Amino acid sequence: MKKILTLAIGLLLTLGTNAQTKNDITANNPAIVSGVVRDGLYTALFPIHPWAGKRVAYLGDSITDPKVKAAKKKYWEWLQEWLGITPWVYAISGRQWNDIPRQAKQLQEEHGDSVDAILIFVGTNDFNDSVPIGEWFTEDEEETWAARHEAKTLQKRRHRTAIMSDETYRGRINKALSTVKALYPTKQIVLLTPIHRGYFGPNDKNVQPTEDFANKCGEFVDAYVESVKQAGNIWSVPVIDWNASCGLYPLLDEHKQYFANPQTDQLHPNDKGHVRMAQTLMYQLLTLPCCF
Predict the structure, then answer these.
(1) What is the mean pLDDT of the chain?
(2) Pairing mode, if any, of strands 137-146 and 86-89?
(3) Span 262-271, mean pLDDT?
């Protein structure tokens, strides 16, 4: 209890100390001046945000890709503006989990070990491409030495091995996270779940139904979202559930205001959608260290 009180008092003192610079922060922050962010707590937390001023890599697909113009400013650009984050973006439109190892290796080649944290936001294209979900492990029986209050003996036990394969969604995630965690063992790696999907039909040869239709595998998008959540436990990486927390739900007409085109593109968030995603992410990241 004493430790909790000490931490609480320390936080209050920090906020009190930072309160004197609140006007300066408000005056100099375009997001607040423009009225995009109206939460007073934001200005108090800005100076002590653990991700402020850090170098963050973004791996993923079209929603993160700077070349896709569904929004003038992406979520990571808002974080750059609000928190002074330096973004290194490797996401490419249309890419799936099987491209994450390549993106991570490119990051390593160009920036070495200087990145502070890596955010991975991908999976919606795996669903659309009907990549089978698959399994996380294969199981067999193997012998291993073991002992508990007795002399050690060679015992036969169930044993599992992670599936590393581009043929299934979970195999792809295993392969990607094995690669990223090996390349960056001392860095923070965070997974973001795919957001909800609406209709996308830019032309007659690319028509993607709303998420209430299953893909060709017979799987709904929920299975792909849940697999990302499970990967957090399997690979010991934090997961931010954007699917639930950002609030974007293009299946309702009232929510199409957050997407690029109410008739043809309810897959890619527009400016309003990215601001909402960014605000959610900014507060979620308050709970995670950026550097170790």
Answers:
(1) 89
(2) unpaired
(3) 97
Please answer whether residues 96 and 122 qualify as being in contact, where contact means their C-beta atoms are separated by less than 8 angstroms. Answer: yes
Inter-residue contact 36 to 73 (CB < 8 Å): no
**Which whole number is the average pLDDT over 182-191?**
98
Q: How far is CA 214 from the centre of its chain?
A: 23
Which whole-number Å values give the CA distances from 123 to 103, 192, 237, in the listed order?
Answer: 14, 9, 16
CA distances from 259 to 22, 252, 271 (A): 33, 11, 8
CA geometry: angle 134, 135, 141, nearest 5 deg: 145
Amino acid making up residue 145:
W
pLDDT at 27 over 60: no
The letter for the amino acid at 158 is R
Q: How far is CA 75 from the centre of its chain?
A: 11
pLDDT for res 48: 85
Q: What mean pLDDT is predicted for residues 132-145?
A: 96
Handedness of CA 138, 140, 146, 148 (dihedral sign): positive
The contacts found for 213-222 with CB under 8 angstroms, 24 or more apart, are 215/127, 215/128, 215/129, 215/130, 216/130, 217/130, 217/131, 217/132, 217/133, 219/127, 219/130, 219/132, 219/133, 221/124, 221/127, 221/194, 221/196, 221/197
Both tokens of 151, joined, read: 């002399």
Q: The whole model's pTM is what?
A: 0.86
Strand partners, 188: 117
Across the range 26-44, mean pLDDT stands at: 45
Helices (H) and strands (E) in the chain, counts: 11, 11
The residue among 126, 119, 93, 87 whose CA lies nearest residue 104 is 119
| 234: CB partners within 8 A, 6+ apart | 136, 162, 174
